[in-house]
């Protein structure tokens, strides 16, 4: 049962950024325009970095690859996104998005503490290193 929960947690915590990153990649110019509207500096530079964090980080978390590091990055990114894009608290949707991002950051921090779990690339690599030490 633990393995199923660990996989489910990674799927549920990664899918939002995989979908969001893919959407931004598919509409690169629209995303850059939105970032410019938010007042972000150098939106043409920020856009590929955000896509890399969202799509790359989401896929890495899904696979359990460098999970602690990726989860820390996604936690920081979630908080930064909340602060940069969701602080119009007069709009209930923005308040919900702000709180959602903070909740997501909390979930990512659990991956920082506990790692990806048994069924992951991290765990497979650790087992492989361990078997080489036994030789």
From TrEMBL:
InterPro entries: DoxX, DoxX-like_oxidoreductase
Record-annotated membrane-spanning stretches: 7-25, 45-63, 70-90, 102-121
Alphabetic keyword roster: Cell membrane, Membrane, Transmembrane, Transmembrane helix
Membrane topology: Multi-pass membrane protein
Pfam families cross-referenced by the UniProt entry: DoxX (PF07681)
Localization annotation: Cell membrane
Keyword DNA-binding: no
Keyword Transmembrane helix: yes
Gene Ontology, cellular component aspect: plasma membrane
PANTHER family: INNER MEMBRANE PROTEIN YPHA-RELATED, OXIDOREDUCTASE CATD-RELATED
UniProt record similarity statement: Belongs to the DoxX family.
Protein name, UniProt field: Putative oxidoreductase
Species for this entry: Paucimonas lemoignei (Pseudomonas lemoignei)
């Amino acid at each position: 049962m633990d393995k199923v929960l660990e996989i489910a947690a990674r799927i549920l915590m990664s899918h939002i950024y995989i979908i969001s990153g893919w959407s931004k990649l598919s509409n690169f110019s629209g995303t850059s325009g939105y970032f410019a509207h938010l007042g972000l500096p150098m939106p043409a530079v920020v856009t590929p970095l955000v896509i890399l964090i969202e799509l790359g980080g989401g896929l890495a978390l899904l696979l359990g690859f460098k999970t602690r590091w990726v989860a820390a990055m996604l936690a920081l990114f979630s908080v930064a996104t909340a602060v940069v894009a969701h602080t119009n608290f007069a709009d209930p949707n923005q308040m919900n998005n702000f709180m959602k991002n903070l909740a997501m950051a909390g979930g990512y921090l659990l991956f920082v503490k506990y790692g990806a779990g048994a069924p992951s690339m991290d765990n497979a690599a650790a087992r492989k290193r361990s078997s080489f030490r036994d030789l």
